[in-house]
Design brief:
This protein has helices at about 10-40, 45-75, 85-90, 100-130, 130-155. The protein has about 160 residues and is mainly α. Helix 1 (about 10-40) packs across helix 3 (about 85-90) and helix 2 packs antiparallel against helix 5. The longest helix has about 30 residues, at about 10-40. It is elongated. The termini are far apart. Pfam families: Ferritin.
Length: about 160
């Protein structure tokens, strides 16, 4: 039997934070998968630039997925880890076809903005609970997604 968690955050707030982080994890994992898909399937005059950029992005997302899942576990809750769970929790939509390079950029801009909004939605719950580790994680994720969205948007002109 596991011991009771006593990290200074009441159980109801701890569980609410973990649930919000589970949504962020699902969005991040779905975006990781989509970015990897686009890395493999991009074509056109910007192939080399986009292929390498998408690789940088999905590598950063892979690290973020692990960090988010480990924070959920540190809060004493199970981290979702199946495609079914991610599908239920994610607001990022998968790409079921292979769009043009320009459409890939458009979708990824929207998706990075979506993930930034998800992180922002969880922030007040973490802040109210004085959960500084989660607040820091959320702040870092918002900054990363907003910067990536800006860079992708800049490529669209």
């Amino acid at each position: 039997m596991a011991s009771k968690i006593n990290i200074g955050i009441p159980d109801d707030q701890r569980k609410a934070i973990a649930h919000g982080l589970s949504r962020l994890l699902a969005d991040t994992y779905t975006l990781y998968l989509k970015t990897h898909n686009f890395h493999w399937n991009v074509t056109g005059p910007q192939f080399n630039t986009l292929h390498l950029m998408f690789e940088t992005h999905y590598n950063e997302l892979a690290l973020a997925v692990d960090e988010i899942a480990e924070r959920i576990r540190a809060l004493g809750e199970p981290a979702p880890g199946s495609y079914a769970a991610f599908s239920r929790l994610s607001t990022v939509k998968e790409a079921e076809d292979v769009p043009s390079a320009e459409e890939m950029l458009r979708q990824l801009v929207a998706d990075h903005e979506t993930v930034a909004r998800t992180a922002r939605e969880v922030f007040p719950t973490a802040d109210d609970a004085h959960d500084e580790p989660t607040a820091g994680l959320l702040s870092d994720r918002m900054q990363a997604h907003e910067k990536t969205a800006w860079m992708l948007r800049s490529m669209l002109g």
